Amino acid sequence: MDTAFFDSKAEQWDAHRTRVLRAEEIYRKIIAEICPQPYSKVLDFGCGTGLLGFHFVDCAVEVTFADISAGMLEQVCKKAATLGSGSVKTIDLTEHTVTEAYDIIVSLLALHHVDDIEKTVCGLASHVAEGGYLCLSDLDLEDGSFHYPNTAPHNGIDRGAVMNAARKSGMHVICNKTVYTEQKIIDGAVKTYPIFLIIGMRDINRR
Fold this sequence. Notes:
single chain, seven-stranded mixed β-sheet, alpha/beta, 5 helices, 7 strands, globular
C-alpha cells in the first residue's frame, strides 16, 4: 500500500460511506475530550482526503492537511475550494516536513502505515503547542485481515507503544479508549476491529 495505491484510490475514497461515518464519530469523540478554541491551529497528519480534519475547519483559525499522497491532497484542495475558505493548508510529506507548532494534531488510521511508530509519535508531539493536544486514533493489533488482500507495515498498533512514545515526548496522556468498532466480512465470517483514541496533552511549561 504505497503512495501510488492511495493516489489511485483518492478520487473515490469518500464514496465508501463507512469511512465518512467513522471520521464523523471519531471527531465527536475527540471534541468530547478536548475543548477546541476558535484560535486553534490544527494539523491532520496522514489526512487522506481530510475526512477528519475538515470537521475542524469551522472551529479553528487554520487547518493543515499533511499526507504522502498527492492524489489525496488534491482531493483536500478540491474540498477546500468549495468552502471558499483561506483557513486550509496542505503539506506534501514527500517533499516537506512539519515545521510549525499546532494546538491540536489529529491522525486517523495513519500510524499503522508508517514504518517507525515511536519516531513518528515523538515527532508529532514535538510540534504540539503548550496546552495543546495530540489525538491519535488507529487500529488495535489485528491479524492482518483488515487490509486483506493488501498489506500495511503494521497489523494494527500496540496502544502501550503509542502511549509510551507520547509520554517520552513530555505529553500527559488524558485519554485511552476504544471509540469505534468496525466490522468486515472476511471469508464469509464477520470480523471485528476495535479502533482506539489516545490523547496526549502538552502541559504549559512542560516542554
